[in-house]
Amino acid sequence: MSARARFILAVIVLFLLMTGPFLLTALIVWVETEGEGRGLLVSVLAPHLGLGTMLTALGFAAGVGVVRLLFRQYVQGLLRMSEHLRLMLGANRGFRVQLEGPPEVQALATAANQLACQRDELMCDVEAQIARAKESVELEKNRLATLMSELTQSVVVCNLDGRVLLYNNRARMQFRALSEAPGVAGGGELIGLGRSIYGVFERNLIAHALDTIQQRLRRGVTQPQANFVTTTRAGQLLRVQMAPVLMVAARGEGGEKGERGERGDGSEDAAGAAEAVPAAASERTVTGFILMLDNITRNFETESRRDQMLHNLTEGNRASLANVRAAADMLEFEDLTDDMRTRFRKVVRDEVQAMSQRLDQTANEFADSLKARWPLEEMLGADLIAAVQRRIEARIGLPTKLEEIDESLWVKVDSFSLMQAITYLASRLSDEFEVREVRFRLTAAGRLVHLDLIWSGQAMSTETVMSWELEAMRIEGESSPLTVRDVIDRHDGEMWLEREKVRHRAFFRILLPAATPQEQAEPDTYLRGESRPEYYDFDLFAWSEKSHGLEDRLLSELTYTVFDTETTGLNPSQGDEIIQIGATRILNGKLLRSESFEQLVDPQRPLAPESAKIHGITCEMLRGQPTIDKVLPAFHAFAADTVLIAHNAAFDMRFLQLKEAETGLRFDQPVIDTLLLSAVIHPNQESHRLEAIAERLGLTIVGRHTALGDAIVTAEVFLKLVPLLAEKGIRTLRDAREAAEKSYYARIKY
Q1: Residues 279 and 311 reside in one and the same domain
Q2: Cα angle, residue 667 at apex, residues 663 and 670 outer, rounded to 5°
């Protein structure tokens, strides 16, 4: 029975206790008195009936007031205390019961707080012991996280259902580059833990590669692999190497069966497992697969351009060579007239000139395809200049300054040999021409970059420059077999000397190949709560699409997309629009902060000035952003195969539902509302605003009133609510939705 029902019952009982004896006595007297006695009784009691009724009403009102006071101080006070005690026991250990109400309730609260302090001391000791025991495990996890995050090759590991259970940062950036709409939230809807790899690759292609690996396993191949090339939906060309994740099941002499994990990459662990278990006594089962990805689009285009170049050089010159040969044959005739001889010589000259022009044109058009094959790295030009400055100042003590540096330029260089060459030139300038300072300039020149080493001082001859270019480099006891010319040729570049007579300066200009700017991870793209994002979850090896129905799944087992919207106003049915969507994901009870979605949206309507005071978004920030018909498909893909979570979800879902006809997209997955769940767990609390819930649960709010900031706070609140729901017997998605629908706040509509 609820507290309200108990209060109403207490009032009814009080009414009966106060009026029952009076009414019963009057009834008995009325029944026992007959005839004239009843009239006499009425005449005697009538003058006093009003006074008695008034006194009874006043007594009843006073009784109700006393019952209400006792109810609020004892019944509701103890109910609030029980909710606070549950918070101290689970979600917020630092929470303490407030000392309020009558002395008896305050004494109980004081005793509860003292017990909580003793419990915290014991828990801290236990946690310290657990932390010491987990140090080695955490060390291995950190090593794995560091290794996977820093690998230069894209690596993705999936279970047999194609769900991603491990990926590294390189894969994350590459998948974003493969997005069909990379301008929307960075294309983050393709990669993520628990997401399906079939959003990028065809299911049949993966199945065929797995079948190939299975056949090779059956033939006894120790390290089976499959390779294929595929085109993504965005038109990118990927070369994929697939290796299996194997589970080795060994049978002992007694028939007992044990299992050992094995990687399909020929590592020492896999080799050790193979040696420990004879092939005849072991069974290798594929539990997942590893994908190593290379984007070969640019390489393929380069090879195609080279093929086209060779075709132009062969087919284009074939006719010219035939004409030259025919003219040469005719010139051998002795009886050839002078006019004819002159004409054939002109044919030879014209054809040779045409061939020369064709060669020059091809060389210019395919210049970047003819570069030397020395491995060059792409790096930011400003970083290269900074490294050269540090080396010159440290090795030869020559001051350096920057004159004009284009911060957006990327170069493709062998950075070490190039730094050696520039340092060598600066050293010769300092030793032979007494230069006391050098300056750097970095500017764009079409598909090339100009790197200038500038100084003031004596004039230098071209012969000196040539001798420096061709001598082996020696700097402060360090020698190199390369010359400056070797380094320049390695970059397929050029170097020359130029003079600025007006400013009495000179500079070496070095031509370097430009590189395509690389995508940089923005540090504020998501809110970091940990030192390193989570890129792996091995519990997903046991996860399967064929598990029991979604409604009967435990809340702790589900995958969630927690989202929030910022809008132009509070009336979606009257034309208000979404101006920002932010979302994050929860998988296996962990908040994946690194897997986020955040995108501003152009509402194509004016923004109320008062709304900017709440969310801080202005019209200028929205100008040029994608419209909702571009953003919703990306968010729909990000939230695919997950349960949606929002605070006051009816508000956000109404905005999405009103866009169904325009976009053709339906968000028909289950929805959980943390507002309703909070009301289920703490029905006696006055406020269920997100800030109030977070404060009760001991959470720190960061980035409030931004869509992504609110989504992250909502996710943290939900993770705190799950164990509190379990204490009330609410463990599955069905339980949570049914309990939420009975809440008072479920009646709110938009």
Answers
A1: no
A2: 175
Q: Is 554 helix (H, G, I), strand (E, B) or coil?
A: strand
Distance CA 261, CA 439 (A): 58
b/e map 470-492, b = 16+ CB within 10 Å: eeebebeeeebebbbebbbebbb
Weakest mean pLDDT among 35-39, 300-304, 501-505, 643-647: 35-39
What residue numbers bound the domain in which 459 lies? 377-513
Q: Quick check: 322 pLDDT over 70?
A: yes
Tell me which of 48, 504, 688, 705 is the catalytic residue: 705
Q: What is the mean pLDDT of the chain?
A: 77
Tokens of 157: 């590991």
Looking at residue 748, what is its pLDDT?
62
Residues 167 and 221 both lie in one domain: yes
List the end-to-end C-alpha distance of the chain, in Å, as a whole number. 32
100 and 6 assigned to the same domain: yes
- Report phi then psi at 284, rounded to 5: -100, 120
Average pLDDT of the segment spanning 185-191: 67
Q: Side chain identity at 52, as an amino acid letter? A: G
Question: Is the residue at 415 inside a domain?
Answer: yes
Asked if the structure places residue 531 within a domain, the reply is: no
Number of domains in the chain: 5
Asked if 434 and 501 sit in the same domain, the reply is: yes
Res 333 pLDDT > 70: yes
CB atoms within 10 A of CB 198: 16
Query: Of 298, 325, 357, which residue constitutes the final position of a domain?
Result: 298
DSSP, collapsed to helix, strand or coil, labels residue 293 as: strand
The CB-based long-range contact list for 726-729 (8 Å cut-off, 24+ gap) reads: 726/555, 727/86, 727/90, 728/680, 728/681
Q: Are residues 341 and 442 in the same domain?
A: no
Same structural domain for residues 356 and 385?
no
Indicate whether 279 and 350 sit together in one domain.
Answer: no
Encode pLDDT of 93-109 as tens digits: 666 766 766 676 677 77
681-734 pLDDT, tens digit each = 888 787 888 888 888 888 877 656 688 989 999 999 999 999 999 988 999 999
Amino acid of residue 290? I
Bridge-based pairing of strands 154-159 and 282-295 is antiparallel
Q: How many residues does the chain have?
A: 750
Q: How confident is the model at residue 429 (pLDDT cuts 50, 70, 90)?
A: very high
Q: What three-state secondary structure class fits 161?
A: coil
∠ at Cα 482 (480, 485), nearest 5°? 140
Confirm whether 525 is domain-assigned: no
pLDDT at residue 439 greater than cutoff 90: yes
Q: Which H or E run contains 262?
A: strand 257-263
Cβ–Cβ under 8 Å, residues 491 and 418 = yes
Q: Is 705 a catalytic residue?
A: yes
Res 617 pLDDT > 90: no
Q: In whole angstroms, what is the distance from residue 309 CA to residue 728 CA?
A: 74
pLDDT of residue 732: 92
Last-in-domain residue among 111, 138, 165: 138
Cβ atoms of residues 564 and 579 within 8 Å: no
Output the six-digit token pair for 180.
Answer: 């069909």
* Spatial distance between the Cα atoms of 620 and 637, rounded to a whole number of angstroms: 28
User: What CATH number does residue 500 fall under?
Assistant: 3.30.565.10
User: In which element (H, E) is residue 36 found?
Assistant: helix 36-70
Question: Which tens digits make up the pLDDT trace of 3-38?
Answer: 556 656 666 665 666 566 656 666 555 555 555 555
